[in-house]
Amino acid sequence: MLLSATKERIDFLPHYDTLVKSGMYEYYASEGQNPLPFALAELIDNSLSATSRNTGIRSIQIKLLFDDSHGKPAVAVIDNGRGMTSKQLNNWAVYRLSKFTRQGDFESDHSGYVRPLPVPRSLNSDISYFGVGGKQAVFFVGQSARMISKPADSQDVHELVLSKEDFEKKEKNKEAIYSGYIRNRKPSDSTHITSDDERFLHNLILEERDKESFTAVVITGVQPDHMQYLKNYFHLWTRQLAHIYHYYVHGPKGNEANAVTKDVSPFNNIDIQISMFEKGKVPKIVNLREIKDDMQTLYINTAADSFEFKAHVEGEGIVEGIIRYHPFLYDRETYPDDPCFPSKLNDDDDDDDCFIVEKGARGKRPIFECFWNGRLIPYTTVEDFDWCAPPKKRGLAPIECYNRISGALFTNDKFQVSTNKLTFMDLELKLKDKNTLFTRIFNGQEQRMKIDREFALWLKDCHEKYDKQIKFTVYKGVTTRTDLPSKRMQSPWTVYAAIEWDGKTYRTGQLVKTVKTLPIFYGSIEKFFLYGDHDGDIFATGGEVQIALEPQALYAEMKTIPISKLDRTVSDKAVKKYIEDEMARLPDKLSVTWPEGDELLPNETRFAGTPIGALRIEILNKKGEAMQKLPGTSHGGSKKLLVELKVILHSPTGNKEIISHISQHGGKWPYWFKKMENLQKLGNYTLKLQVVLNESNADTYAGRPLPSKIFKFTIIEGKPEKFSVGLLELPFRVGVPFNIPLELQDEFGHATQLGTGIKPILEASGLTLQYEEITAETKCVIKGVTAKGSINSCQGKNFNLKVTLPGLKEDTQIFKIRLQPGPPRQLKVKPDSDILKIENGTAFPFQVEVLDESGNITAQPKLIVHCKFLGASNLPVYSVDCSNAGTNILTGPVIHVQNIKKDQILKARIEILSCKDVPPVEKIIKLLPSSHVARLQVLSVDGQKAIQIKHQDEINWVAGDVMHNLIFQMYDEGEREIHVTPAVAEKIKVNWTPRINREQLIQGLLPDVKVPTSVKDVRYCLITYLDDHVSLESAFTVRPLPDEPKHIKCKLKGPNTLQVGEELQSEIDVMITDQYGNQVQTVTSACVNSLGVSGPGLDKSNLKITWQESTLTMRVKGIRFKPCLLGSKELCFAWREFSDFLRVNLTAGSPAKLQFVDWPELEKPVAVINGRELQKPLIVQLCDQWGNPSPEPNVKISLTKGNNLKIVPSNQQHKTDENGRANLGVISIHAPRGEHTLQLKASHGKTTLDCPIITLNVLPDPEKPVCLNVKYDKNASFPAGGTFPDFMVSVLSEDDNIIKNINPARISMKMWEAQSSGTRTPIDVTTFSCSKVKDDKEDGFFYFRDKVVPERVGTYSIQFTFAMDKTNMLSSDQIIVEVVPNDPVRLLPDSLPATPAVSNVRTLNSRTLVKDLYLHVMDEYNNHTGIDLVGRIIAKIKSPNEDDIEIPQFQGKVSTVEFPFDRGSAEINLVLAENSPGRDSTEYILVFEPDLPALKKPLEPYRLSFMFYNDFKKQQQMATLTRERDQLSQSIGVYRNWFDTTNQLVTEMKCQVKEAETRESHLKNELKKHQIELPQTNTLQYVDSLIKQKMLDQEGVMKQPRRTCTLPNYPKGNQDILGKIAHLAQIEDNEAAKVISWHLASDMDCVVTLTTEAARSIFDETQGRQQVLPLDSIYKKTLPDWNRPLPHLRNGKIFFRPIGNPVFARDLLTFPDNVEHCQTVFGMLLGDTIIIDNLDAANHYRKEVVKITHCPTLLTREGDRIRSNGKFGGLQNKAPPMDKLRGMVFGAPMPKLYSTLSGQIDLLQQYRAAVVKLDKVNKDLDLHLQSLNTPEMQKKKQELAEQEKNLKLIEQKLGMTPSDKVTESLLQPILLDMSDTPIPPKRMRRETVKKLYSSEEWISSPTKKQQQQQQQQLLQIPASELNGTARKRKA
């Protein structure tokens, strides 16, 4: 017994998700059911297993603790089973640790599984099975589980908590998730429960005190939806659990209600109790034994008989089965209904007219439910077996009997079920196997009889014994029922008059009541129907009865219902009473109340818009009871009553229904109609309330009208709220009264009357308004309105007249009137003075105006003004008509009074005779006497002074001048001057000019007299006047004098050019002359004040004018101009009224700034793609400070920029030309992404000019490679001579995208041995080319596969390069690889020792075979390896002759010596034994055999030949000869290698010559095909000149004008952008280009992209203004076939001969780039559009095509369009001229001549290169052949021959076999040392590497110079270094 609680650490293996979420995943594809009961069943399974050994009551409690006052919701499952030890509790926590697998570590829980003995129905409680159900169930129900258990033999309680929250916390904190603690504590000790959420645990733990053993599973964190389900569906899920454990609770026979006594069986002790606790509610407690409506109980208690059987399955599988029969009783099937499988429609929901002859009792449900070890497996059912399925032919029992059986199958655990026990795995498969044997169990015994026969007989017996039916009697014949919807079911029906049913007879006319109908019917029987053609009485099921509904006065209809729906319990009396009550409950009258007021009284008169209050209505029957339905209708249906409200307007045209509502009675509200406020129309109304039937809306029922009520009322107009002004009578005149009619309206627009006391207010700006009165009748009129005010025109003036009626809602109206002047009231005469003077003999004009009373000029018809003169006889009368304008000039004949000598007074009376009320105007006229001409006087006017010229005077005048101001005056006899009239002027003559200006004469001016230019000339002038009365004359003489100043002359002394802002350096002299050029001498210095200088833009601030006394001239200085337009400027010099002009040339000022020419706005950054050129050349212009171009040459201009910005060309110094311009050219920009600035700098003199700054927005170049991306296996090792892993190389552009479509030949891999100094690429580099790109890999990746690792160990550098062009290479980062040795293959020394020569004498040195020889393990490329190998080296001596038994021995007389081998090498020292045996002068072999156990493959032993001598002297001689032999062998090998290399080089050079000749010849033939003949001599010069000429021709073709698209293209900042549609294609034909461009006008500006992402990016950049088309969104299946023939070609035949040259529009397009993408775009846009010559041809083509197929859109070269629907004509189908397309037109492709020239230039350049190469290789070969014949080479050949001769002699002396060629051993040292050279000689390279690399991969080749150096190095190797033993080199 524990003194206190302890913790025991445990581990459980699965991931916590497996525990926590297994419930979610394992449970539950729940087939439309809630799986929660099945989860609880898992926990009950565990409890049943735990209590299986109990001898007493097996108690299982499920407690639903939902009382939140005791903590959060929880579910507890508690049993009194055997409990679990801590080890068993640990095992429980392990997922899928079933009781069958608890062995090994789990044996300590003593739970080795023993299968229980067979029991009936397999009710062995062995149903806790797999080790998963409990965990799944727990975590399906909630978030946490607390396992509390106490085993029977323990005094301690063990407790384990599994929590999802705890698992997640541990995972987050990186703790061990799958471990926890089992708490071991005393019973009833709840001190560890501290959380308020788990307060309920205290009570649970208290209950432990008296329990010997138990297990409790407490689930917390219950899912909210589970909790709701458990609360709301308590009955449902407890019923399901009772069904699952039916046979455990009730025993093998089940819950038999009619059993006489319950068997005393071991199953009566299983007590499963479920209790639910909620706050404030009585606990719900149910025991599964008490549930009486679970399905198995229903099946057992409704069955009349049962059929038991057993199935024997292969193996030990046994299935017990039972089939139960549920009989048909008269009118119903007794087969119980399952809520989860409703077998039929609820009878209550049957439609009256629906008829079902036979309805299966079981419905679609399978027969068998399946139990496993006595527990239901809910989701597995078995439909049937062959022997119990309904037969195809009629059997012993009717077919419907097969639908009256239910069944259950009971299996043992030999059949597999799923881990959550929801389904069997293979039950049905095994049962329906052909080897399964079925036997019947009868009285507990198996009977081996045919099961199908037994079953059929049993079923027949059940049918006859237990099924009960109705007897149909009184046969009436067979009929057809047309009321049925299905024609098949309409006949035959047999009619009967009576039936006998369960001992009771029903006849025609009998009163009946129905059940289970909606509504319940009462009526009398008419007839009975039975389906089928019967004859006479018959027993049958089903059938129908036709009843007449009662009371018939109410219903008058028939109903046909199934016989089963007759109520067999009702009496006739009850039916009759119902019918009487029904009649009394018919509706009788309506009760109307007005709950909200606004009651409507009968015949009431109401104002429009007055609301009629809400109506509350009750329908009353004769008893005064309120009712809502017709009697006899307990439910709604068609007998529900509604109240209909209608408002009807009675108008002259007829009655009009304006409101119609229907109200129905609700459960909580009466019949109710809302307030009506919209009754506005005037007239008589009726409000009618009528009771109607629901649905049919009938107002009568059974021939009787339903109650109604009528209110009559009248609507009249309301009070005035607004008004409008009616039609006014025109015209309106000042002072003339007029009326204003007003139309008054109420708020709904009805005409109404004005109330008394309202005084209108009239207002108009500028007018005085008055009125007399306002009438308040129906028609309201403001009478006698008069207006007075000023009007400027007799046509009148517009005024806004405002009428206000105070008190109205809308009280103001403003309207326009045009007020005309009033009737004449006064006459105004001008002049205003009362006394007027008139000359005798003249007419006098009067200005007369007719005015109204306000002083306005007025006019009216027949307005004639008269003037009478009084005071003398024969005076005229004046009159004038003023009808039009009201004003005119009043005049008439002259007033002439004879013989007046002095002034005479007359009177003028002016009046309007037709207007008596206009007072006349009188004027006094003073008549002055007239006179004739008496005297002529001539005067000369000088200013204000007039000088009289007397007759015969002499006048001095300026020479050449004109006497301008000569006037003459004539006087009458009274010396009064006479005015000159035209008539008088006619009579005046002068002698100095024939042309006399009469007008001037009238004014008193004589013609100008031209004075002679010479003072010597004198002119005589005569003036005469001759009329009827007198002849007068006057004469004078004119003598010329020097003239007055008439001109000024300006003279410029010096240059006439000046700059803006500068003064003119030259002086200007101004001289005053007369008009003949003579200088006027009379001027003085004062005249400078009169000189003015002017000119456009002249700056007068520094102007100076000085007087030159000596020359009598004026001098002008300080001329300069303000900033203005440059060029020729005209200066005006004015002196007094004279002026002269002078031109000066104004040039730009000093350079002050630079400006760009034709460049976009500098405020915005210029977008440019990195590495590309700017759109335009940078041209700058020097300007002065005012922006004028300054033509200053040789001004230096420099470009400054940031360090990270590079521009090409880099020449940043420029000079301006003679116009001050500098062309910096088209520059290309190289810079990082972002904004950069280019600053121009320039200075002129010492002034720094103001220079612009260009801001560049540099975009990454999607086509510019910037880096190589290399991918490979970085974990790979690199063994010498092995193969590198695959390298995957891609080229990235500036925008980090992979560049595709790259020639793989441009990417190469370079490798070299890493240098210690720096990262510079050395000379000896091995280069590899790219392997073939794999077809299945993505485009843009290049692979280097199977490249050979160098044979020499060391550090190597690998670098990948991409040839961007001929000079620039892009390199990747260097990859440093460590080449490690390969597998060990041989044993070799450090350096190959010389052949030893030893003897067996005493001297140690003579016996020493090898001293300090280090043997190493080498790989096949001679790299040291095997550092980690440990073993030994065994040295032996062998003879070449195997028969030789005399073998020398080592010191100590031993034949083998062992040496330790460690860290890859062994040190060898070997000495022969003194007096060792052995043949004298014999060659022996030292064999060193490695013994290295760690190696799988043994190594080759190392062999070293040595010479053995018995004699010491001979040994010494032979040792010397051996050394000489070794040296000669080395030397000969070097010589032979060198000669072989030389011969190989010659062969290669000859091959190169041959190749070059073939290439040159091939290209020459190609040129001949292009008609280019080449001369035999000076070929290169001719080719160069030809290339130059062709390039000039090509440039000329380029410059020829051709059609271009001027629409700016979208910048291709991304390789996914193809560009605008207008730029994607070109069209050669001009007409076609125009019409196709117009046809696609709306799409030309659209940018095409490859991807939707790129399109979206453009859309965002342009804020949605740019239209875009992504290609990945085009549905390509509908695109046209590019090779499809024209529609008139059908199956290769011409259907008709077209005219007009039709061709597909798409075939006229050529695509410079992206052909495939462009075909997609234009295929979509153009489809099958056809181009044809003209409209006639197009119409003909379309007419013919539509006979055979659909015709596409047709475009004509003349610009017409016929749409695909046939429509043509109109502006929208006619293309405008080309210039109207504003450059949005497809460009023309380059002329064909251009591509021809390009091809010729390319061929010529290739040919030139071939000629140069041929010349070079020929020269190289000649030089090399010459070098082979030099004396040095001859000498080396002789040296080789001598050395070979000496070698043979030495070998003979040594006793060796002479060899004709160098032995294999000679090649080895050379190869070893050759590895130090940078590049191997070619011959060796060819032989040794040929098999490792393909020819195209080996790119690098040594230069001739390198080869010669290598040969020299080889020849200089000292012989002492060349020693070794022969070995073969791997080829």
**Which descriptor suits the 3D outline?**
flat
Strand segment tally: 114
Residues in β-strands, percent: 25-35%
Terminal Cα separation, in Å? 85 Å
Provide the gyration radius in Å. 66 Å
Q: What structural class results from the helix and strand content?
A: alpha+beta
Q: Average pLDDT across residues?
A: 83
Helix count from the secondary structure assignment: 29
Order of strands, widest sheet: 1-6-5-4-7-3-2-8-9
Given as residue ranges, the uncertain stretches (5+ residues, pLDDT < 50) are 21-26, 102-111, 344-359, 1860-1931
Biggest beta sheet summary = 9 strands, mixed
- What share of residues is helical? 10-25%
Oligomer: single chain
Features:
disordered C terminus, flat, 29 helices, about 1950 residues, 8-stranded antiparallel sheet, alpha+beta, 9-stranded mixed sheet, single chain
Describe the protein's architecture and organization:
- Residues 1893-1931 are annotated as: Disordered.
- Homodimer; homodimerizes via its SMC hinge domain. Interacts with LRIF1.
- Residues 1546-1573 form a coiled coil.
- By secondary structure, this protein is an alpha+beta fold.
- The chain has 29 helices and 114 strands.
- The strands form 28 sheets. The chain has a 9-stranded mixed sheet. Strands 19, 20, 21, 22, 23, 24, 25 and 26 form an 8-stranded antiparallel sheet that branches.
- Strand 93 and strand 94 form a beta hairpin.
- Helix 18 runs antiparallel to helix 25 (1792-1828), helix 18 crosses helix 27 (1864-1874) and helix 19 packs antiparallel against helix 25.
